[in-house]
Specification:
The chain is an all-alpha fold. Helices cover 86% and strands 0% of the residues. 14% of the residues are buried.
């Protein structure tokens, strides 16, 4: 479990580090944005794997349902004409950081036990 926590810290810290370097070298901002895909992929995969192995954990259940809800929202947004509703843009941008913080808190709690 500690390895998952350390990997999560790496995947969360990488975009932040690249963005800080991007202050001085603009090309690193692109790498910072691209590395957020790695963060989301890692957290989604590990969250779902942890949910499968610990289905009785209510925090992981909330995380899995939230991730599923986000992907349903993204699918609905991309396939139907909701582009004029600005709230969907804000939701699609705001939900991933909230999910990342929530998953990091779940891993932190698991490591502390």
């Amino acid at each position: 479990m500690k390895l998952l926590h350390y990997l999560n810290l790496f995947f969360v810290g990488l975009p932040i580090l690249l963005a800080l370097i991007g202050i001085f070298e603009d090309d690193f901002l692109v790498f910072a944005l691209l590395s957020t895909l790695l963060t989301g992929g890692y957290q989604t995969l590990m969250g779902l794997l942890l949910f499968i192995t610990n289905a009785d954990n209510p925090r992981l259940r909330v995380y899995a349902v939230s991730v599923l809800g986000y992907f349903v929202l993204a699918f609905v947004y991309s396939h139907w004409n909701f582009h004029e509703y600005v709230i969907f843009n804000y939701l699609l941008i705001g939900i991933p950081p909230i999910l990342a913080i929530y998953f990091s808190a779940i891993l932190y709690k698991k490591v502390q036990r």
